[in-house]
Structures are given as C-alpha cells and as structure tokens.
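Sequence, please.
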C-alpha cells in the first residue's frame, strides 16, 4: 500500500503497475485531450517552466501496448482500428496510449470505487467507448457537462463552452453521497413571467430552493486573477474536484490522480480529509503541490512524499514478454512459421526445463499448439526433424 500524500514524478503507466490491485477508492483524471497543441505556462507564473505535449504520433506508443489491449479487450482493439480508419494514425496512437492506462486504473480501483475522466469534445466519443470496453457499458453512470462562460467565440460555430466528465464505477455497489445545489426562482427571461425556476443566478434576483445536483455544472473558469490560479496550463477549478470527491468518496478514502498537473485533485482531497496520490510526468507538479498546500491550506511540513522511483510491478509482466516475442517473430510460430494471432501461440522454453533450460526471457519463444505438443520435451533440432518428416517445412 502506498503512503498517503505521495506525489510521483514519472510516467503514470509504470507507477500504476506498481500499485496493488483494488487499493484506490476514487480516480479523477484530466489527461491531454489530443488538442494537437503543446502547452506551456506563462513565464513569471508560479508554474513557469511547465510544459506538456498534446500531439500524438506512433513514436509515443510502446510496441507491446497494442498486443496487451488485443489480448485483454478484443473489442477495444477493434474500436481503435476503426478510430484509425475514421480519423487517422494520430487518434489511434492517442487511444492506445490512454487505453493501457485506463486498464491499469480499472485494476487498482476498489470494488466500491469510481472513475471520473475529464475530456472535451475532441476525443469524448472514442473515450466513452474505451471506458465501455474496459469497465462495461453498464457501469456508465453519468456524462457531466462542466459549463463555463469564458473563452473564445467564432463566426463559424457555436461558442464552445463546456467540457465533458465521464463517471463510471467498478461495480454496482459504489459510494455515492448525493449532493444538493441551489436552484433559483426568478424571472423567466424568455417570457417575463415571475416565479419560474431558473438555472442560473445571473443577477441574484431570486430566491432559491435546494435540489439534487444535476449533471451540468456551472463553475466559473479560473479568472486570471483567481487566488487559486498557479499559471499551470489547463489547471482546473478546485470546485470541480470538491464535488467529485464529496460525492464519490468518504473521509479517509484514497483518491488517485494519475495526470495531476498542478495537483488540484490532491489539494481538494487534503482539504476534505481524504488520502491522496498524485502522479505527473513533469517534475513541476511536485513542487507546485508543496507550494499550494503551504499557501492555500497553510500546511507546512506536512510530510509529503515526493517519489521519483518506479515501484516494482505487482503483476508478473509475462504478458509483455509474449508481445515482445510476437513482434520479434513477426507474428509467426517459431517452429512451422505459420502466421497466427497471439492468442493462438503458446509460450515455450527453447531448451526445456527438464534439460536444464533456464527460466529467463532469452530462453522463451512462441509456438503454435501443434509444434508445442510435437516438440514436447525435445529440443528445436528434434522439432525441425519432425516438421520435415510431416512436410510442414522445407529444408
Ligand atoms: C490537462 S493536464 C492536468 C491538469 C490538472 N487537472 C490540473 O488541475 O492542474 C495533463 C497533465 O498530464 C501530464 N501527463 C501527460 N502524460 C503523462 C503520463 N504518461 N504520466 C503522468 N503524467 C502525464 C502532463 O504533464 C500534464 O500535467
Ligand atoms: Zn507451428
């Protein structure tokens, strides 16, 4: 179990692989949106120097990831192929990158846990299907719209004024603390009638009633002057995180943000007496969270654990070695050289263990089941002889 108040600097895939299964109650993450922009914080701001890339190519992808996805979630594999046909290689790379990480998030969530994925209309359609594939379509709970007023306008389209937050749960037995919000009474601006419920308080005219929170959240975008603003590009308002955390966790629970940026999630979790773990590939995140906890909560010397190591993987990565071998063997059986899908190839010790073959990756290969059975406790010379006899191989 990881310690409370841990912030990791590193790639969240490596770090999540070192986290115990079913050890986290709530995950919120706000990954790069595939905006095709690269972000940088303004010079002179608290976050100066922070930068991250949000354009994706095949170089961002490890060759084993696609195989892992195909093996665990064949439907997701097909979905990604379709996204490539429709939208191109960059979208495919983005989805492969996100999918392997979402698979780890699903693993580390407790059975009562929830996941919130914050994105925008660029990839929301594909990300929702990705979540359906990993969590199950029946584990979808809400699509929340975060609506705001600031930002640009255009003469060519409706002004884009919302982000999307998908809310999924691991099982049907999830933590949910219903929240209330104010619903204002006042003038209906379309008809001029009084005492019609309005959904915003544009001039503070009316009285309000408390109603159950809705799936669209009016929360102001951080003004340049806002006290909580660090200058970190894409920083999200604390109020969003407060709602997520209050609703889907209890005091003492563990909250994880694997793309934590300037650690808004960690700060809100600390404020609400939850335990937290933040991960960001940029080392600035760790410095910012320490500064923010001191400045905003007055918490000094809290004992934040800043880790730069990669915890050892909790699961044997035998799946990975299979994908590396598959790639090296060009998708073929190492005996008869027939092309096979990875699921149809078996892992074999080249020198059998009964003949003192060692159990290391360099002594492994993939064989079709015929070759594997035929080779039995023999060696490769024996298998080759049998293949020649059967006419399955030319000399
Ligand atoms: C949209 S920002 C998150 C902003 C955050 N919600 C906040 O309020 O500050 C996305 C973050 O993901 C980080 N990131 C991108 N790829 C990552 C990876 N593989 N592992 C960890 N962090 C990553 C970037 O450095 C960036 O800080
Ligand atoms: Zn074979």
């Amino acid at each position: 179990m990881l310690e409370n108040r841990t912030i990791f600097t590193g790639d969240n895939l490596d770090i999540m692989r070192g986290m115990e299964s079913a050890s986290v109650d709530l995950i919120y993450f706000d990954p790069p949106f595939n905006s095709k922009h690269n972000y940088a914080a303004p010079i002179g701001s608290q976050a100066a120097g922070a930068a991250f890339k949000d354009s994706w190519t095949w170089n961002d992808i490890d060759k084993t990831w696609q195989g892992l996805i195909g093996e665990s979630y064949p439907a997701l594999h097909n979905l990604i192929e379709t996204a490539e046909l429709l939208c191109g290689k960059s979208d495919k790379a983005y989805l492969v990158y996100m999918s392997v990480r979402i698979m780890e998030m699903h693993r580390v969530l407790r059975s009562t846990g929830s996941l919130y994925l914050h994105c925008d209309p660029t990839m929301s359609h594909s990300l929702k299907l990705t979540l359906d594939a990993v969590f199950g379509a029946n584990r979808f709970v809400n699509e929340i719209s975060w609506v705001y007023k600031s930002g640009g306008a255009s003469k060519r389209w409706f002004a884009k004024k919302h982000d999307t937050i998908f809310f999924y749960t691991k099982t049907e037995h999830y933590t949910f603390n219903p929240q209330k919000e104010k619903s204002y009474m006042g003038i209906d601006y379309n008809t001029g009638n009084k005492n019609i419920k309005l959904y915003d308080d544009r001039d503070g005219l009316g009285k309000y009633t408390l109603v159950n929170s809705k799936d669209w959240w009016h929360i102001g975008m951080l003004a340049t002057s806002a006290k909580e603003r660090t200058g970190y590009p894409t920083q999200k308002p604390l109020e969003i995180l407060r709602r997520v955390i209050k609703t889907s966790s209890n005091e003492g629970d563990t909250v994880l943000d694997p793309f934590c940026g300037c650690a808004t999630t960690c700060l809100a979790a600390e404020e609400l007496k939850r335990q937290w773990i933040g991960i960001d590939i940029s080392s600035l995140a760790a410095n910012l969270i320490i500064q923010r906890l001191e400045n905003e909560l007055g918490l000094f010397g809290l004992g934040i654990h800043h880790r730069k190591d990669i915890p050892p993987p909790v699961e044997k990565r035998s799946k990975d070695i299979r994908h590396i071998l598959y790639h090296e063997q060009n998708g073929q059986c190492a005996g008869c050289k027939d092309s096979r899908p990875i699921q149809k190839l078996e892992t074999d010790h080249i020198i059998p263990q009964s003949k003192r073959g060692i159990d290391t990756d360099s002594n492994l290969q993939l064989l079709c089941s015929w070759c594997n059975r035929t080779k039995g406790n023999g060696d490769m010379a024996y298998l080759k002889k049998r293949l020649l006899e059967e006419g399955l191989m030319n000399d």
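Residues 89-108 form the longest helix (20 residues).
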